[in-house]
Known about the structure:
This protein has nine helices and eight strands.
Amino acid sequence: MIDAKEVADRVARVRSEISNAGGSEVSLIAVTKSFGIDALRAASAAGCEGVGENYAQELLEKVRDGLPPIDVHFIGALQSNKVRSLAGHVALWQSVDRESVVDELGRRAPGASILIQVDTTHEPTKGGVAPELLDTLRTRAESVGLVVKGLMTIGPTDGTPQECEKSFELLRRLVNEQGLSVCSMGMSADYRTAVACGSSMVRVGSGLFGDRVRVAK
């Protein structure tokens, strides 16, 4: 069971650490995957700017349970065949990284706000469009009526501070070059580094809710 007061205390602590890292206007997205609907309610009550969900079926179960008044971000690997069922429940699609997903979003969620996920680590387990193909994917997204708000990346797994900085600095540079406003990078283990590198949105799960208990997808 999620303790709402404890979550609120952790939110306050994370915001303090964001400020200490140099962040002034950084959105805090509470990653609620694998937690129950009480986690979303606690995040909403604590004033988080959104919640992040990774799995389509899990999100739909939470929709049936009754979502609190908070924006839902889809942050997991997105399959084209899941878009139709999720359209209408997602405020920001954070993990758009290929044309098939762009095209399906254009059909099923016209006018949707998206972030393009960029591969800044070259790790095979991570998604993301290659930086050199970013222009092409953005053009495709805008041509089907999607609103590209910014970019997203996942930092290196078990990376050194220098490797994390390199990954995050690359995304920040790309956001600037593209003239976009949202730079989504940094999770529980590395959000301080990400903020120092210019993140405008962090995605924190275990740092707010503790260890996850896996639930069905």
